Amino acid sequence: MERERPTSVTVIAIFHLVIGFIGLGCNTCTLLQLASGGNAMAGMFSPPGQQQQQQEMQEQMQQMLQNQAPFFNWYSGIFGVAIPWFLTFALLAAGVGLLQMKPWALKLSIGYGITSILHKLVNGVYTIIYLVPIYSQFFKTVALQQPAPTPAAQAAQIQVMSMMETVIKVSAIMTPFVMMVYPAVMLFILGRQEVRDAFGEREPQPPLSQPPL
After folding, report:
1. Which CA distances in Å does 96 have to 6, 57, 107, 182?
2. Among candidates 30, 12, 178, which has minimal Cα distance to 108?
3. Is the dihedral of CA 111, 15, 174, 156 positive or negative?
4. pLDDT tens for each residue of 44-60
5. Radius of gyration of the chain (CA)
6. Which residues have a Cβ under 8 Å from the Cβ of 19 and sit 6 or more positions away?
């Protein structure tokens, strides 16, 4: 007998597939970035005269991260590449399974949600403790290294670097926690009893005992 699929399961399945395909693109860009030593995107959208300068800044930041952030290469490989690819494939597989009302897809979705939240939590903590101070140091160093023709131009340059530092720091801190929203909402929806019942996950009730004669 074919199970009737609740509307909430259909919505979650579609979100699984959409976010999964977006993840494929993002993860591919991350691989290209790491394969090029962090320079694949440097200066891509900048005027030709500034591309070399931005590439040098990217190389300098990458070097600071590797030298100062503990286990940065391991962190980048595991938390930046391996786990995101695993979560992406799990999301796509679970999306297809949910559309077919497969019980394993419910379990896989719940496993994805828990793993995804833990992954993003570790990313956020690592970023706040180790990466944000390095970003601050980098932008202060770059602001002092850039030549300026006048003191006013130097002050304006420092202000621009300060704004860039603030944007990157806020983005780096907020992104992991914002990305927890979907797995948290998904766990809440798929954890409801009516959804579990639709997948046949209701725990069997013990038989009623017969009253003594």
Report:
1. 15, 43, 13, 18
2. 12
3. positive
4. 444 555 566 667 777 77
5. 24
6. 91, 182
